[in-house]
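$ run holo --ligand "nicotinamide-adenine-dinucleotide" --emit tokens
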Amino acid sequence: MEGLSFGPLSILPSLAEELNPHRVAFLTNTTVERLWLEKAAEGIEEPIRIVIPDGEKYKSLETAVAIWKRLQEEGFTRKSLLIGLGGGVVTDIAGFVASTYMRGTLLGLVPTTLLAQVDAAIGGKTGVNFNGKNMIGTFYLPNFVLIAHETLSTLPEEEIRNGLGEVAKYALLDRKVYALARNFEGISETLIRECALFKVEVVEKDLGESGLRRILNLGHTAGHAIEKLSNYRIKHGLAVSMGLMVASKVGEELYGFDSGKTEELLKKLGLPTGHPFRAEEILEEMRLDKKAWYGRITFVIPVEIGDVVVEEVDEAVLKRALEATRDDSGSGDCQKPGGSA
Ligand SMILES: NC(=O)c1ccc[n+]([C@@H]2O[C@H](COP(=O)([O-])OP(=O)(O)OC[C@H]3O[C@@H](n4cnc5c(N)ncnc54)[C@H](O)[C@@H]3O)[C@@H](O)[C@H]2O)c1
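-- output --
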């Protein structure tokens, strides 16, 4: 597994030096360049600076081509180090470019959003969008990931909440994360560390995503459908939060799971506990997804905190869970989380 380090940006030069690279290039976007590139590059000799526009739509092959070209012009080699500094969009493209340029260069990731620190930068999945999200990509483990808590100090509240959706997911999957999250008073280094380490542990057991890694889809089956139905107005993390509530209701009916624990947790984190759609609309969206995956879409169901099963669920059960979690009062808005970063 990749070397996961927790510490300030000032340790980046020593992480880079350990790899003895020919050259170092930073890949970042316009927003993170302004906020963090100078600090990250301190102590690294004449790094190449590649800055892409900010936004999911730039997670594209066109952007990858532009980066490959620039690396070639700069004489970047397989023994050079590409450092992706940014949110999940940047870390996904950095991984993709590093895995494909000259069949693979050295790669370091410095995730700067909560979502990227607990999820996107961990586990070796890289990619770009191409007629669909993440349609072109590779599995490529970075040489290091540096989780620098300080970078979250500039992250907007909305992006913190986006990441908290994934934190809530880990809390249902892991008792240690649950214990921290239910007493949430702001994003702590410990909470991020426990989430990140949990993902590392799962991924280490299943890099190719054939088995255990599927548990990381908890909340995502209904969540994706909700995200799509809202035309992506509902952000990923909030849709996942709604999806966790749906999955918990399914768990309650099938395995006696206490969905009140999920509700309490989501409220503590300032996340929505209900979705704004009709059950039939979400089911229809899920059926489309199921078709896209050759009818093999399964559901991750909480049995108790720290324990889930992965199985197909009868539509009637799903429908009841979707009806029980509908909240058309305010399209999933909710109170602020118990503190800030
Ligand atoms: N590879 C994986 O396993 C995996 C897992 C989950 C998500 N993803 C991908 O991650 C992407 C979403 O990641 P994201 O939520 O980080 O989005 P993002 O990268 O678009 O970042 C969100 C916003 O925050 C800004 N930002 C980043 N760091 C900042 C900082 N420190 N201060 C202020 N602003 C900052 C960005 O410029 C952007 O505007 C999606 O493309 C998704 O497919 C990948």
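-- notes --
The mean pLDDT is 93.
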